[in-house]
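User: I'm writing a short report section on ligand binding and want a predicted complex to refer to. Could you take this sequence and zinc ion and write out the structure as tokens? A short remark afterwards would be nice.
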Amino acid sequence: MSRAEKIAKMATRTANQAKEAATTSKKRIRGKNSVSFESHKHCVICSIPIPINNEPSICNKQDCDATQKRKEKSRKRLSILLYVGVAVFLVPILIQVVGALI
Ligand SMILES: [Zn+2]
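Assistant: Sure. The structure tokens for the complex follow:
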């Protein structure tokens, strides 16, 4: 084998190696967390990819579950408070209007 041939062979080999490395690294990214790349959503707490049909939008981690439940609770309480506030504001007006009509 001549020197030029040897060099050419080595060059092609390294090119193939580079190609291979690129494809394997791409595969590694796709395979991460075993979630398909096309359709997925993210955990609302830690934002890791989760399946699209996960409802509510949280992963299986205990931390995220607890945080999500706490958030849900405080949101419910806040909306109740909002309705109570509106009622407290509207009831006297309604009573006045009804009193004026009678
Ligand atoms: Zn999470």
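A remark for your report: The longest helix spans residues 62-101. The chain is about 70% helix and 5% strand.
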